[in-house]
Amino acid sequence: MNKRAAASIAILLFFVLFFFSSVDAGIGLEEYTATTTVRLGSVLFSLSSAAVLLLPLSLCLMVFALISLLYGRKSPAMLLSGLATLLFAAFLLMYSSEKMNNSLYNTLSGMLKEAGAKFKKRDIAGITIHFSPLTYLTLAVGALACFLSMPKVATARDRYTLRRELLPYAYISPHLLFFIVFFITPSIYGVYAAFTKWNLFNDPLWVGLDNFRILFTEKNNTYYLQLRNGLWNTIKFVLYTVPFSIMLPLGLAFALQSKPRGNKFFQALYYLPSLMSITTVTLAWRYMFFKSYGVMNHFFMTKPDWFTPPYSWVMLVVVTVWWVNGGTMIIYQSALASIPTELFEAAAVDGANEWRKFKSITLPNMRYPLMYTFILSVVAQFNIYGQPLMLTGFANNESNAVLLMYVYENAVKKQVAGISAAMALILGICIMAVSFVQIRLLRANAVD
To answer: Alpha-carbon distance 203 to 208, whole Å?
Structure first.
């Protein structure tokens, strides 16, 4: 067996030992004592302390190390498995030094109360934490995987090759770290939370598909109604907004392509809203169109309430398109500039009018930018949140409330995080399904 295969087996053994490892915790109170044993797999999903967040980071790095070994890249495998082992060691050190872990305290205090002890949290000096021998064996196996992944460094050429192979990973390591911390880890915990009953304070309680049963079958349940209303409003917003998010920037790009006087000024003017935050944009439009003191109603001597249906949908579309059209316009300008002018000249010689040129030359050459911006626009508008929250909120019988507003409301204000995560997962599945169809259409229209 070569060292690469041995290192791969060591990484697989690391995962097996990890989920069989455990934590022994105990507290004492006068004549009462309570002890419990918790698997590291349960600690991973307990979300009970900052130290726990090191575990998914360590496991993800081990997965990347295993992938590197499968592709025959020993140098990055050594680096990744070494970092994973160090993070696991840091978890053991930080977790064992905690005096009052919330998850463990809830379990142990419940056992003391069942035994008849009467106390308050301040009466507990601390929780003693010890790891099982398998935990330290997991750490040793991680170090062994790093050692077995080490390439040859006997000669100067070997060391030069090692530096050359590791240098690219030094450049991407910050991005990889933030990708794992802020994308992979929240995604894993979010999917897990969708199958739990969780109030953000205690440990998540696994309930399986119960959250989805409530959302899809209990017609008199509030969350069932919220899902239907929020998801339908989100889909309506996508249908109303996406066509204008494509056509308006395309029209502006065409207008600026002719390079009229002051085209640079107008280009900067159209792009300016894209540099603003959604809060700035939304509040500016809200102040302009507010019923009682808004500039527009006073200027035109009108009295409509622009933030009630059906005007509210118009305002949401206008605000969103005004905000996003600048970036899309720049993409279209670049695509238009890359089309050879000889094609238009040849078409003009053949007697083609402007519509024929647009249909036969411009659109085929802009297929990929159009599809790219279409996919991005659909995904972005499915994630609508800020505009309806600040323009209308839950007013007008929640006629403009989108699904992410209910997700935030239930998770943060009502502490119903399990149901909220299930709603978010349903929205994510809808986005992935739509994106999959769009990408398949893009590939189907690709030129061989």
So the answer is: 15
